[in-house]
Design goal:
This protein is an alpha/beta fold. It contains 14 helices and ten strands. Residues 103-124 are annotated as: Disordered.
Length: 383
C-alpha cells in the first residue's frame, strides 16, 4: 500500500517552508467566521478530542449533535475531481448542515502535515488528513485514534490496530495519453521514443507525493526492478530527462486539456476522469508493472473541530461514503464486504478497475527504503 495524492507540485525541499507559510495564509483566507469548537467533554465524560468511537459520545446521534454544534470542518488537499471528493463534500454538508472549508485542493500529502504544524492551535488548522503511505507512516504521532462504526468491516491489513489511521480508497498507477497528439502508449518503454519528446509528465515530486512515488515504482517494475529496488525507475527517468522526453510540469486538468501535458503518469482514477472532458484521452495500466495502493485517512489530534472530524470519518466509511468514493473511479476499502452484503452500488461494482496478473503493493518497510533512496537520488537524476 503505497501512496499519497498530489495534483501539485514539483515541490523541492528548499521551497517547503515558504509553501507552508503560503498555505497558512490560504487556510486563514478560505475559512468563514465560525462557531467555536465545543471542546470539553462528551455526555459520557470523555474529552471530545480524545473520543475513540461514537460510543464515547453516547452514540451516533450525540456525535452528530456535537459536530453540528461546531458547525464546520477543515479539509485540505482534496481536489473536487479526485476520488469524487467534490460530491462527497457536498453530500456531507447537505446531510449534516456542516460547512466544509476546503483548503489548497491541489496540495500534496506533505503539504497537509506542514499546514497542520503551521496552523497548530488555530481554528483554521486541518481537522483531517488524506495521505499517502510514506507521509502517513512518518507522522502517526500527529493522529488521534478513532474507530468508525464500520471498523470491523474493514480488512485488518488496511487499518492501524489502535485506530490511528485507516485506508479509505485505492487504485492502480497508470499512463494517460492524448491519442490525438501522441502515438498510443503500449508500455513504459515507449516513453523513451522520440515521438514523446517533451511530452511525458509525472504527477508531482516522488519525494513529496504518493502518486509520483508510485509512478516511479511502476516504471521500476517495468525496467526489471521491484518494490525492494526502485533504482531502475529513477534511472529510467534520468534517461527520459537526457532524451528530452521528461516534461518538468506538474500536470493538472487544465494542462491536459490544453495539450501542454499530453502524457501523464498518475493514478488510473485521476487519469480516467479526464476522458469525460477529453474523448481522445486514453488510460493504460501496464499489465507487466501493475502497482496498486491505498490512501490513509486520519484525524489531526489537534483538530479545531474534533467532533466534526470524527463525523467526517463515519461518513467516509459508511455505505453512502464508500459508494460515493466508488462513483469516482476508485476502489473503496470496504468494496468486497459491501458487495458480499449487497450494499455496493452496481454501477460502482461494474466500474472498478481490474488488473490482470500480479499486482505490487509495497509494504511500509519497502516504502520507507524506497523513500530514502528517492531522497538521496531523485534530484540528481532529473536535476
Amino acid at each position: 500500500m503505497t501512496i499519497s495524492r498530489n495534483t501539485s507540485r514539483i515541490f523541492t525541499h528548499a521551497t517547503a517552508v515558504a509553501a507552508a507559510a503560503m498555505l497558512a495564509v490560504g487556510l486563514a483566507a478560505c475559512a468563514p467566521p465560525e462557531k467555536k469548537s465545543q471542546g470539553g467533554e462528551t455526555d459520557s465524560g470523555v474529552k471530545v478530542a480524545e473520543a475513540k468511537s461514537a460510543a464515547d459520545f453516547g452514540g451516533m446521534d450525540k456525535l452528530v449533535e456535537a459536530a453540528k454544534a461546531e458547525g464546520q470542518l477543515n479539509v485540505i488537499a482534496l481536489p473536487p475531481d479526485w476520488a469524487n471528493y467534490g460530491a462527497i463534500i457536498k453530500a456531507f454538508e447537505e446531510k449534516y448542515d456542516i460547512k466544509v472549508n476546503s483548503a489548497q485542493p491541489d496540495a500534496a500529502s506533505q503539504d497537509e502535515i506542514n499546514a497542520a504544524n503551521q496552523q497548530k492551535g488555530k481554528s483554521t488548522a486541518p481537522d483531517v488528513f488524506d495521505l499517502g503511505q510514506s507521509v502517513a507512516l512518518a507522522n502517526t504521532a500527529m493522529f488521534a485514534p478513532y474507530k468508525v462504526a464500520t471498523w470491523d468491516d474493514i480488512p485488518s491489513a488496511y487499518q492501524d490496530p489502535d485506530g490511528k489511521w485507516v485506508n479509505d480508497y485505492g487504485g492502480y498507477m497508470s499512463i494517460g495519453f492524448d491519442s490525438a497528439k501522441v502515438p498510443p502508449v503500449t508500455g513504459v518503454a515507449d516513453l523513451l521514443k522520440p515521438e514523446y519528446r517533451g511530452k511525458v509528465a509525472l504527477n508531482g515530486d516522488p519525494t513529496q507525493a504518493g502518486a509520483a512515488f508510485s509512478g516511479v515504482l511502476m516504471v521500476a517494475l517495468a525496467q526489471g526492478g521491484s518494490a525492494d529496488d526502485i533504482a531502475p525507475g529513477v534511472e529510467f527517468f534520468a534517461k527520459l530527462k537526457q532524451a528530452g522526453n521528461f516534461l518538468p510540469v506538474d500536470p493538472t486538468p487544465a494542462t491536459i486539456e490544453s495539450g501542454q501535458t499530453p502524457v501523464v503518469i498518475d493514478w488510473n482514477y485521476t487519469n480516467a476522469s479526464e476522458t469525460k472532458k477529453l474523448p481522445s484521452w486514453q488510460v493504460l495500466v501496464p499489465q507487466d508493472a501493475a502497482v496498486a495502493g491505498y490512501y490513509y485517512q486520519a484525524i489531526n489530534k489537534d483538530a479545531p473541530h474534533p467532533a466534526a472530524a470524527r463525523l467526517w470519518q463515519e461518513f467516509l466509511f459508511s455505505d453512502e461514503g464508500q459508494n460515493l468514493y466508488g462513483a469516482g473511479g476508485v476502489r473503496p476499502v470496504r468494496a468486497d464486504n459491501m458487495a458480499a452484503a449487497g450494499k455496493l452500488d452496481k454501477a460502482v461494482a461494474d466500474s472498478m478497475p481490474i488488473a490482470h496478473g500480479p499486482v505490487t503493493v509495497p509494504s511500509p518497510k519497502q516504502t520507507e527504503a524506497a523513500t530514502k533512496y528517492l531522497a538521496d537520488n531523485w534530484a540528481k537524476a532529473i536535476g
